[in-house]
Each structure stands twice: as C-alpha cells, then as structure tokens.
Amino acid sequence: MNKYVCPGCGYIYSEESGDEFEGFPAGTKWIDIPADWACPSCAVRDKQDFQKFED
Amino acid sequence: MAQYNTYNHVEKIKTKDTKRYLWWLPLLVAVSPIIGIKIYEATGNPLFPWLTPILWYIFIPLGDFVFGRDDANYRDSRSEEIENDVFYKWLVFLSVPLFYVTWIYSAWWIATVANSTTAYLGVTIGVALTNGLALVVGHELGHKNNQQEKNLAKLVLAVPAYGHFSAEHNRGHHKDVATPDDPASARLGESLYKFILREIPGAFVRAFHDENVRLKRKGKSVFSIENQILQSFFITFLLYGGALYTWGPVILPFILISTLWGWQFLSTSNYIEHYGLLRQKQEDGRFERTRPEHSWNADHIVSNIMTFHLQRHSDHHSRPTRRYQVLRSDDAPQLPTGYAGCFTMAYLPFLWRKVMDHRVLEQYNGDILKANLDPKKRDALIRKYTKGDSNE
Q1: What are phi and psi of B320, to 5 degrees?
Q2: CA-CA distance, B137 to B262, in Å (whole number)?
Q3: DSSP structural state of residue B248
Q4: How many domains does chain A have?
Q5: B290 to A22: CB separation less than 8 angstroms, yes or no
Q6: What sequence ranges are listed for the domain Rubredoxin-like (chain A) (predicted)?
Q7: Cβ <8 Å between A44 and B317
Q8: Tens of pLDDT along B287-339?
Q9: Minimal-distance CA residue of chain B relative to A48
Q10: How far apart are CA B314 and CA B298, in angstroms?
C-alpha cells in the first residue's frame, strides 16, 4: 500500500485508507484514481503532479 | 518597455500583529444593517437605513484612499504562530450566526415596521452587502480541511442562497482559474454585465456536475442526502420559506433584491480578481501552474480588513488552505484600489477598461495574445493593441 503527497499543500492520499468523501473506498489503488482528478484540498495540483510519499 | 509588475514591491517584515483587533470590524459590518435601523429609529434621519451601502460604496473606498496600503508580511516562524492562534478562526465562526441575526431582524423590520420604500430598499441593499460578506466568510471556511469548518461554510452560504459555492469554487475555480475554461475568470474586453450572465449559470452547472461526479463514485444519486449543495440549499429553503410564510408577499422584494445583489457582489469580486489574466499552455497541452501573476491584488488596508484579506489573492490561489490572517502580500499584479472602489469602477465598463486594459497588457509586455481574451472581441482587440498603442 502506497501513499502519494500533493507537492502544493501536503495533502496525502493513502491507498490503505482511501478518501471516503472523494468516493475512493479504503484500498483504492493510485492507478484507479481518475487521471483528471485534482488535489481535493487545494486544487492547485493535479494527480500527475503528486509524488510518492515515504513515511 | 513596460515593467513585469505595475507595482514594485519591497518586502516589509513585521513581527507584531497590528491587525489583530481590527479583524473585529467585519463583524460590525455584518450587523451594520441593524445598527442603521436602530440609529434611524432614534434620530429619524432617513440616511441611516442606507448605512451599509454608504459604508461599502463611500466610506470604505475613502478609507482605502486615506489609510493606503499595508504590504507587510510575517517571517515564516511568526506566521505559523499566528496561523495557529485560534482567536482568528473564532472571529470567523462568531460571524456566522450574525449573518442570520441580521437577515432575520432586517426581514422582520421591513415587513412590520418600515414606513417608507426608501427605508425598505436601503435595508434590503444593506442585507445584500452583508450577504456578500457572508460569501466571503463561506469562502474562508469552505477552504479548510476539517468537517467543522466545512459544515459552517454550508450554514453561512445558506443565507445568500449560494450553497453550491464551496463545490464550485474549490474544485472548479481553483483548478481552472485564469483559463478560458473557467466561468469565474473574466476575459479582457468582457464587461461586468456580460461576465455575470456567464459566471452565475456557469458556476451553478459546474458545481452540480462536479458534485455529481463525486457522488457517482460513491454509488449515490445527485439527489442523495449526501449532496453538499442540496444540504445548504435546504437551510436556505427553511430560512426564506419561513420568512415568506410568516410575513407574506411583502418580504418577496427583500428576498429577491438582497439575494440577487449578494450574488452580484460575489460575481463582481470574481470579475476583478483575474480580469484578462491567462495561464499559458505548456508544450504538453496543460496550462501552466497557477502562480502569483494570475491574480489581481490590492493591499489597501481598510477593504482588506473588511474582506478578510481576500485581496491578497495571489497568495490565496497559491496556498488556498492558508488562513486569512497570515495571507501574504505578493509581488504580483496590483489593482488601482481595494475591492470596494474597484466594484464601482467595474459597474462602469468604459471606466473599468480604461483603467485595467493597459494594466493587463503591461503584465504581458504588450503581447495581447498572452491575455485571456473575450472570443467575440478577439480580432478587434488584437487589431487595436498590436498597433503599438498599449495605453488605450
């Protein structure tokens, strides 16, 4: 399970917990997130700008 | 050759929060229609039902002229301290019930006490302006990443009947800002009136579209109880419906005028915030990232206090979740005055274009093709501004 971070605001998408509000249940893989999805926190950066996050 | 920025900014650093107690002032404006009514009842002076419009359209622009700019920022460590100080967010929370009190008291007063059409109209336009301020507060709250503030945003946005704002603004406007795809970014050559007619329906459609996409992913219908937009509009329905049921048709002009004028307040803010500015397309077909040069700013202190620093707009678009009290003044395009004065200019399209079009061109060193152009005026604008005359 991986995590991805928005380089603009620091929002973290975790595959393990998903994002319930956004409609991504726990376990939703990064590859299954729509390509046109933007950061739900700032909308300044898009999916393709996100970086892999290491704890 | 024109300067990259029309206002050369020398960064000032401060450590003391001199504005701390000034942030009470917007709360006073939030109840100013009631203050106006009370003074009117005490003195009989017919100007006082018009207190709020007089404040917004005369005294705030005058205050900007007299007190000028405040472009100081904090050092990062101090900024973090001030951002985490709960005093500031509690002021915003406290304003939320005040918008309800003002709306309900004003509605009651015009339905049962007001004895002239001018008093009715003055209070109505006053409430329209406090509705505009409620939208500013809803904007501040709706950007935060916690459910408490998001819920307060829905509650406060119900007063001006603009429950779709958070969905539209956060996911739509911030994503598409300063591109031709954004109904909430004004184009060079577009009048305020044309913009309002494009923006208000465009924003509504985009909000429902985006909310529908989100709900579909969850396997829910757009009419589900989870629809954030409908939740807010349900509160509006209770407020407006309750007033109509209690006081009858006499309240209808109040509701229509204050609501539509409040929407106009928001639309006019959007109009001046990005007028003519354009994010350029990159080779990969994406628009360049939103940067400070894609928003207009005004550091004028009086109107900035009244709008919770909304006029430090470039920084807001760079870091949308940053709290109002620590928004930074950026080296970015500058409006000639604060929002209150710019509103009146925008109401007069010939004046607005005279003041702003050359500012847009200066941002692009005279290259009109880099601006966000009104497609219907594109050819005429290119002809006009490629003759080397960038001052007209």
Answers
A1: -65, -20
A2: 13
A3: G
A4: 1
A5: no
A6: 1-53
A7: yes
A8: 999 999 999 999 999 999 999 999 999 999 999 999 999 999 988 999 999 99
A9: B286
A10: 10
Interface list for A 3-22 with B (CB within 8 A): 8-9, 11, 21-22
The Cα B246–Cα B25 span in angstroms is 32
pLDDT digits (tens, 9 = 90+) for B119-163: 999 999 999 999 999 999 999 999 998 999 999 999 999 999 999
Inform me whether the C-beta atom of residue B289 falls under 8 Å from chain A C-beta atoms: yes
Range of the domain at A28: 3-53
Q: How far apart are CA B123 and CA A39, in angstroms?
A: 41
Residues making up chain B, counted from first to last: 392
Question: Which of B145, B181, B211, B226 is best to mutate for the A interface (most A CBs within 10 A)?
Answer: B145
Question: Which H/E stretch holds residue B304?
Answer: helix B301-306
Residues A43, B215: C-beta atoms closer than 8 Å:
no
Considering only CB atoms, A9 lies closest to which of B215, B218, B321, namely B321
Split at pLDDT 50, 70, 90, the class of B392 is very low
ipTM of the complex: 0.91
pTM: 0.93
Q: Are B244 and A50 in contact (CB under 8 A)?
A: no
Q: What is the Cα–Cα distance from B64 to B46, expressed in whole angstroms?
A: 26
How many Å lie between the alpha carbon of A10 and the closest alpha carbon of chain B? 10
**Percent of chain B topping pLDDT 90:** 89
- Which of A22, A44, A46 is the closest to B320 by Cβ? A44
For B48-106, what is each residue's pLDDT tens digit?
999 999 999 999 999 999 999 998 898 888 899 999 999 999 999 999 999 999 999 99
For chain A, what's the residue count?
Answer: 55
Spatial contact of B378 and B18, defined as CB atoms under 8 Å apart: no
Using the Cβ of B321 and the Cβ atoms of chain A, whether some distance falls under 8 Å is answered with yes
CATH number, residue A20: 2.20.28.10
